[in-house]
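Researcher: I've been going back and forth with a colleague about how Putative ribose transport ATP-binding protein rbsA might be arranged in three dimensions. Neither of us has a model we trust, so I'd like an independent prediction. The organism is Gluconacetobacter diazotrophicus, in case that matters for your notes. Sequence below.
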Amino acid sequence: MRGHRPMTTPLLQLVGIEKHFGGVHALRGVDFTLLAGEVHVLLGENGAGKSTLMGVVSGATRPDDGRFLLNGEPVHFHTPRDAQAAGIVMIPQELDLVPGLDIAANLFLGHEPVTGMHTLAHARMRRDARALLARAGVDLDPALRMSSLRMGERQLVSIAKALGAEARVLILDEPTAALSAGEAEHLFATIRELRGRGVGIIYISHRLEEVPQIADRVTVMRDGAVVGEAAPDAPQATLVHMLVGRDFKDLFPPRATQVGPPLLRLDHARFVPTVPRAGWQAPQDVSLCVHAGEIVGLSGRTGAGRTELLSALYGFEARGTWEGTVEIAGRAARLGSVARARRAGLAYVTDDRRGAGLMLGQSVGRNVVMSTLARVTPWGMAAPVRERMVVKGAIDRFDIRPRRPDAKVVNLSGGNQQKIVFAKELLTTPKILLLDEPTRGVDVGAKSDIYFQLRALTAQGLGVLVASSELPELIGLCDRIVVMNHGVTVADFAADTGEDALRGAALEGGVAA
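Model: Here is an independent structure prediction for Putative ribose transport ATP-binding protein rbsA. You can compare it with whatever you and your colleague have in mind.
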């Protein structure tokens, strides 16, 4: 994708952008340019200023000082609608889709086609929706409800929606956070097509392995300022050092040297949902084991059944019965509902923290204790002192910032929101922790904090089963990696397995190792 590009008048230019939020200096004289037909990757930890800067570009945030030029002409956006009218479209990390509507209705929400009788042109809308989905490399029926889709599929629908806006400037915030490697390649092909048509693309990602695949230029931000530019093919170690001042190998804790007895054992286990769901890949033939003190990873393409395995074990979003062998701590377990899973010692961190893991409008303290109310409200009576002690302990243990129990969760960074999800689940003192994309949308430094916390927990005897679409994360974190395909476990690899072997097993069905 990359090549030497002569400097012409930038499509977009920010000069000396300043922004304060109360006493917080969010942007410190930021300069940033974007050329037509360029992919400019923007890197930075949560809190570095990326979102504020993109808020300026997308019309959601008005700068205190500085200049904003589009095609060399000064512009002043008062609302996101002004920016959209100028051809600037942003796809946020947290998707703005309506779960109760179908795909076609979401794609054309607010500008639905109508007939001559002023009724919705359903046939035309579905036909145009298919064309948009195909353009984004998405093979989904436009009549499917958004609520029935996995997170990765919802992300692809959001990409397709943006393609219909004919953007001149496209801002992608963590677009592959919930995508498999194959789906990410579809997205990259679409980006290359848009780039070839002269669209300028600002690409924000915490996945450093994507940078050489997609970038023409790379800018790194820290503490509200630009700290430098890096070559698109710069080693990950260089980027990590620019971002956090640490070496890449130091992001992951040492693996377990020994493990305890089996905590979770599945042998040819199959889940039969009470009510079948379209597009939901029920576990068909799963064999795996998680020992005390061990982290086991789940790999596979979107649709392989990783998310469904975790949610079926926990009884989340799908009730049903298990067939085959399902054992917890050496005893047969009768799972199928959240209450049974909790009694058996399971805890679950969903891949959709904002939609299902947190009460965004509530405080940090209220979110932390919501899974253990019986502990902090004995006999149904409020116990403020006990609640404050529990919350303070969780904030200290997981380094949740700001360290204020009364802070609204909606105002926290993605990394701190994820730490709250971990804290509230671990207060239930589980035997086994089920994690689905635990670092989705989390910056490099916060990811490392989570990895070390997980190792500290396994050192105390906890077992962890984690699904992730980031192969470097699975390889760096896990003791073993199990590959799934169409609801079936097809391979079980040692931790030092390379990415090529894992991808091959996921694509081809694999051979048990």
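Researcher: What would you highlight for our discussion?
Model: I'd start with this: The chain has three domains: 12-246, 260-345+430-513, 355-429. After that, consider the following. The mean pLDDT is 88.
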